TrEMBL record:
InterPro entries with a match to the protein in the record: PG18-like
Alphabetized Pfam families for the sequence: DUF6825
Signal peptide, first to last residue: none
Organism: Halomicronema hongdechloris C2206
Protein name: Thylakoid lumen protein
Coiled coil, from the record: 74-101
Protein's GO biological process: thylakoid membrane organization
Keyword annotations from UniProtKB, A to Z: Coiled coil
């Protein structure tokens, strides 16, 4: 009877140590995963911001390389929008004719 008590006690201690080790490893891996994800998010954010700044700089610069207002680009953009609207209207007319036939 005494022998069974000590076996049970040893089993409980070993099981407790094993559970503690597994829990520590799991929390360590979770912390490592969290740190890696935060680093990836930080790098992604920096990449997006760098791309946005590069695109903004390309739009703001004049052809001679100096920075300034993008007013000339606004007129070109408006002309492009007008052309696209005209093309869309032509496609709609062609689609209606196709559906009618």
């Amino acid at each position: 009877m005494v022998h069974a008590f000590f076996i049970g006690r040893a089993l409980a201690e070993a099981t407790s140590e094993q559970a503690e080790r597994l829990m520590t490893d799991a929390l360590s891996q979770l912390g490592q995963f969290d740190a890696e994800q935060r680093e990836r998010l930080r790098q992604f954010t920096e990449d997006v911001m760098a791309r946005a700044q590069a695109a903004e700089a390309a739009v703001v610069q004049n052809p001679d390389g100096s920075t300034g207002s993008a007013m000339g680009n606004d007129q070109d953009l408006q002309a492009t929008i007008d052309n696209l609207r005209a093309e869309i209207a032509q496609v709609r007319v062609a689609l209606q004719q196709y559906r009618a036939s």
